[in-house]
Amino acid sequence: MPPRVVFTAVAITVLLVLLSSCPTRADAGETVTYIPPVDAPIVDPFRPPPTRYGSGNRGLEYATADGTAVRAAADGVVAFAGDVAGALHVTLSHPDGLRTSYSFLAEVAVLRGQRVRRGDVVGTADRRLHFGARDLDDNYLDPESLWSGASRARARLVPGVDEGAAPLASAERAALLSLLLDRGARWVGDRAEAARLVMHYAVELRPEVRLARTARTIARLRAQQRFCTPADEAPAPPSSRRIAILVGGLGSTATHAAVDDVDTTALGFAENDVLRFSYAGGRVPDATDNPRFGSVPATAYGAADSNGDLELAAAQLGELLRLVGTAQPGVPIDVIAHSQGGVVARLAIAQEASVQRLPASVSTLVTIGTPHDGADLATAAAALGRPVDLMPEAVVRAVSGQDPSAISVRQLNEVSDFIDELDELVLPPALRRVSIAARGDLVVAVPRTVEDQWPSAVVALGGLDAHDRLPGAEATTREIALALAGRPPTCASTEETVTDAISGETVSLATDLIAASMLAEAALLG
């Protein structure tokens, strides 16, 4: 959609607001049962716009296949059926006073004034279906609150651009035009993102840029060899009790996470002193009741929870650190995080420290295969999944291994604002830290794990599953033990550091070449 169409839609909406008069209201109060309009994944949840005329998402957006039947969410009467600014919409008025809208349809199957029953087909979907819900005052509410039978009083509301001030037909057109504002803003945002990605690959694929980065990575790794631990020197075991908090990565669940393979027993942690962070808040439930942490909530989580907003996850981890610190005051806390979990842990500790809420007992941060500079695969997912949705999601998953619609994947792409802000975070000076990488990691390449102010260790581990095997590797256990003992990483030869840098840059380049070529193909197809 050209930008001028977006601006025209906004202008028409404002004009309708100025010319509007009082609405006709339906009787409210009857109990109505609602169901989702389609059986399809939600790719954009309800996001209230900050202002009446601002953009956001005034409903739910589903990823639907062409021709999917769209069904009435509840019994009602068709209040509107037809075209608004080139897009097809249906609006139903329900006995409880709510109105639901079904937008950006491929076909409309009902007429204005027609009565429909819950589950009746009102149209067919295109590639994306927008489903919205409004109350008598034309406040948009979160449609997901309807599935659980939540009352309108508890629903999250945002004023519609018409505020219910127009006659029904005009009000419907104005309200539906406001959805174009949302979609238009996303169109502009996607293309801005696409432009950044194109520029990113234009720079990243230049040979001189790759050579310079390889040289910089070698220099970083070599500089750290001024302070290292000889390979034949064993780290001292902990002299007192310590608590380990493990943080899993993208796609982990309460019952499965690669970080669980960390050999906490060999590291000197008692079984009852090992907790795992839950992306749903609190800690993952233990097999047995743990009296030491009975005051800390235990919550199971699924893979979808680890795909969410990393800033929210960091806030939840920060709360867990405070709860553990309160439950066991004075006992040192070591945070050991894998992949995305390292980003969450870094953000949580920095944010808690910035507001002076971080327990003094948090003493060590170990990140394993963590994309501190963003992940090449996340960038590939953003490149293939965001620009105009030209590439099928199955193709994106096959190439990048990531869900392009996941919030965390968007945040971890190398050109995201999140990664820029992450680089500005300041960790407590007294915090011991180490970043551990695998030489042959195909998910997070070595150059993405190396930080200037962090000791870094690269272990000789390769293979398709190197990223998942890294937490449990014997060499990783040694590097964690050194960090816990306050010792620098194991010494590496010049040949090893050069090999580590070149191997990692090769993996990064291969990923970028595949993503850039498919991005170019998608642009040509569009």
Description:
- The protein has 526 residues and is of the alpha/beta class.
- It has two domains: 3-192, Glucose Permease (Domain IIA), CATH 2.70.70; 238-373 and 417-493, Rossmann fold.
- It is 35% helix and 17% strand.
- It contains 13 helices and 16 strands.
- It has helices at 3-19, 144-147, 168-204, 207-223, 310-327, 340-354, 376-385, 393-400, 407-412, 417-422, 466-469, 474-484, 494-525; strands at 42-44, 59-63, 69-71, 76-84, 87-93, 99-108, 115-116, 121-134, 139-141, 157-159, 243-247, 274-276, 333-338, 362-368, 432-438, 456-459.
- Strands 1, 2, 3, 4, 5, 6, 7 and 8 form an eight-stranded antiparallel beta sheet that branches. A six-stranded parallel beta sheet has the order 12-11-13-14-15-16, with helices on both faces. A two-stranded antiparallel sheet has the order 9-10.
- The two termini are 12 Å apart.
